[in-house]
Amino acid sequence: MISDTLNTAGAIAKGMATTLKELFQPTITEDYPFEPPNFEGRFRGVHVLQRDANGLEKCVACFLCAAACPSNCIYIEATENTGDNRVSAGDRYAKVYNIDYNRCIFCGYCVEACPTDAITHGHDFEIASYETGTLVYRKEQLLAKEPQGAPAK
Amino acid sequence: MPELVKFKLNDKELTAEKGTLLIEAARQNGVEIPAFCYYPGLSLQAACRMCLVDIEKRPKLATACTEPVMEGMVVWSDNEKIHTARKTTLEFLLTNHPLDCPVCDKGGECELQDMVFRYGAGGSRFVEEKLHVPEQKWSPVVYYDAPRCILCYRCIRICNEGMGVGALGLNYRGVNSEIVPNKGDHLECEECGMCIDICPVGALTSGAYRYQTRPWEMTYVATPCAHCGDGCKVTLSVRNNQIMRGNNRDASGLNGEFLCIKGRYGYDFTHSAERITKPRVRKNDELVECTWTEAIAAAAAGLKAAKTHGVIGSTHTTNEENFFLQKFARQGLKTPHIDHRRSADFPALMDALAGRPATPSALATSRDVLEAPAVLLIGNNPTDQHPMLAWNIRTAVRLRKQHLYIVNRASIPLVAQAEAAKIAKAGEEIEELERFRDALAKEKDVVIIFGSEVKGADITKLVAFGDTLPGHTRYIALADNANSRGAVDMGVLPDLGPGYQPAAQAGMALDEMLAGNLEAFLIVGANPARRYLIQAGKAFVVVQDMFLTETAQIADVLLPSAGPYEKGGTVTNTYGEVQRQKLGLLVNGAKTDLEILSLIARAMGFDLGAANAATQSNEVFEEIRRSVKGYNIAAAALWTGSAVPAVTLNGAVPHRDRPDLIASSNDTLFTSGTLGRYCSALSAVAEAKERKNPEGIGK
């Protein structure tokens, strides 16, 4: 009976010692949503369509991402670059580029398939919505910002 | 029985017909010998060095495409030596070939891509910079990207030999070699696009298709072409209810891989901005858009109020629609006045050939033209009006030594292939035939092909002439449009019902109807106002059409109909071969002519059957098979994509001769009646401006 009591008190003391010790250690959990979360570099979030150093779109509308996509969520319409409307560095560009985030499973196959490194995974993940219609992202929403001081097109 | 020879391929004993090329003999026995420049039917080139094989007792590898099989030959197509040779050949082909597959139109269906994947080495030893030459635009429909070209010369040969045009040639030598068009920097030719189709890589690309999509993104629908009466099949590449391109690489039709500019590029009327997609009703002398319910009710009321009716059918709608139309006229409206624009005198031909057995038929098919030892061509200009017929004749003359005899009012391009040609004055074609009598008497079997120049009594004279020839003489009458023959076979004529049976009561012909005092007209897919004066306001006019044509503009009720690529059914080409038309895409707002007719029939209280839009086309087809003489054709063959000849020779055809009504619209390669006006690619090419349709009539 007495030894039981002593044993219990010892166990509590041991446990509390750990708690007290950890109390003064730096925290490892994150304070999301009050602070932005930290990501590993390879985190697969909402896609970003990259631009090259001249501000032109890297995407040449080859459709390989759409072909690689297992959930069939990428829709592209291609058209030809012309002299006065040059959008990408290649012969053609994506006139329409939609990703349907209702279907996307963030597997990254599109990124692997891309021959021009145009499509990448960004770190945005807060895309929950009450309306599925808003989950079809258009090219304008996916494109990276034009670099500062890019030459005029 | 052809002589067979034995040879050994990869240690297997095989046999092949004597004289077969090794590459073909291997293919027949299921062994693939890769090649770029070899193409069945074209002259041999041995340019690509891809088909190298190892032949016993030969010190060097030999090209399988130029080597006929010989008795006792021992060949290897799959050893270490050949693997190395293929890898090296492909490495050389890729010396200057850009690796821009992601943007190249051919990516995914490129023969070079496939070959490198299958036989090529993983890397290249070349470190030198690739030669770059800017892309050239040869015409609105043909673009040439020289660096991609692997110099197989297929395009040059198909243009020279297949098309007989010879618009392509070669400039410079070695790595600088380039294909050049006949006018230096641009093309002047038939714009058929065969060079684009036959190109194994993406060097020649189509202006209408380039940089728009990728081959695996589309669905493919093989359906008869909407334009001339030849009945070529065009494989439409469709994406999101939009036709991206037309070609026939799958060789699914009568035409093999052949297509002219109309078949290949003439699909864009489907997406024309001028398509009508809402019904219109005339109110206060203006056509205003309305709902389908309103329009059908207005059409039914107007037709019901009139005591006399005239019905005009189309040469573009399906057999089902034409059959239903004549049923609608004869059983529904109870009018005998029904006609269409005729361009060949089929009733006179069937009458002249009455009593001949079904087999061997006195009517020739398109394949017969290819196989016949001799062809007599009277009138017409097949190069412009029946491009597949011209292609078949050229092929037969080239590969089978066919003899071609021509009687024409002018010197046509096919004269280059002819054994003998005579220029005849208008109306004297039959008399001119006597000059060929001795030559034709020496031929085994002759296929006689005639255009709209021969009609009425001349056909009887022609058949009498054909009967004097030894051998089995067969005939083909050339009609203008995709279903001109079908319209006649289905009885869209005032004096004949379906299957060339006399109508219960003979009605007025097209010109009489339009000049007469009929109270109402139903015009389906035709544009008679282009040739005849129809007095608007005098009669109540219901028009079913895709566009606001001259006729549609005077309509009281205008109903937007679906185009030929937007519906199922069957069509009969000018040779009498029935083919199934497949639904390629849907266009919002339009209904098929059959559905529109059945809706009007229901609104008018006619019981004509086939009321369910989903199944009506098949229902009417079954009715045609049951009731139209000669159309009891094998449905299974039709359903699997074959062309089945209708047996339309069924005894005497008592008809009323109206040779004055039979006229071809003499469409060129760049016009196609009213329909051609809405095909932007046809009018975009420079040649279209030079070769205007002389009479300016059509449809």
Which SSEs are present, and which pair or pack?
The complex is a heterodimer of chains A (153) and B (699).
Chain A: H1 2-23, E1 47-49, H2 64-68, E2 74-80, E3 92-100, H3 109-113, E4 119-121, E5 136-137, H4 139-142
Antiparallel strand pairs in A: 1-4, 2-3, 3-5
Chain B: E1 4-9, E2 12-17, H1 22-28, E3 52-55, E4 62-63, E5 73-76, H2 80-93, H3 111-119, E6 136-137, E7 142-144, H4 154-162, E8 168-171, E9 178-181, H5 194-198, E10 204-206, E11 219-224, E12 233-239, E13 242-247, H6 261-265, E14 280-283, E15 286-289, H7 292-305, E16 309-312, H8 319-333, E17 338-339, H9 346-352, H10 366-371, E18 374-378, H11 382-385, H12 387-400, E19 403-408, E20 420-423, H13 429-432, H14 437-441, E21 446-450, H15 457-468, E22 474-477, H16 484-489, H17 510-515, E23 520-524, E24 540-545, H18 550-553, E25 557-560, E26 569-572, E27 577-581, H19 593-603, H20 616-627, H21 635-639, E28 644-645, H22 673-676, H23 680-684, H24 686-690
Parallel strand pairs in B: 1-5, 16-17, 16-23, 18-19, 18-21, 19-20, 21-22, 23-24, 24-25
Antiparallel strand pairs in B: 1-2, 3-4, 3-5, 6-7, 7-10, 8-9, 11-12, 12-13, 14-15, 14-25, 26-27, 27-28
Helix pairs in contact in B: 2-3, 7-19, 8-19, 8-20, 9-15
Q: Can you walk me through this structure?
A:
The complex is a heterodimer of chains A (153) and B (699). Helix content of chain A is 24%, strand content 16%. Chain A has 153 residues and is α+β, with helices and mostly antiparallel strands. In chain A, the strands form two sheets. Chain A has a three-stranded antiparallel sheet with strand order 2-3-5. The radius of gyration of chain A is 25 Å and the shape is elongated. Chain B has 24 helices and 28 strands. Chain B has a seven-stranded mixed sheet. A five-stranded mixed sheet of chain B has the order 2-1-5-3-4, with helices on both faces. In chain B, helix 2 (80-93) packs across helix 3 and helix 7 packs across helix 19. The longest helix of chain B has 15 residues, at 319-333. The chains are: A alpha+beta (153), B alpha/beta (699). Chain A binds chain B through residues 60-64, 66-67, 77-80, 90-92, 115-116, and chain B through 100-103, 107, 210-214, 216-217.
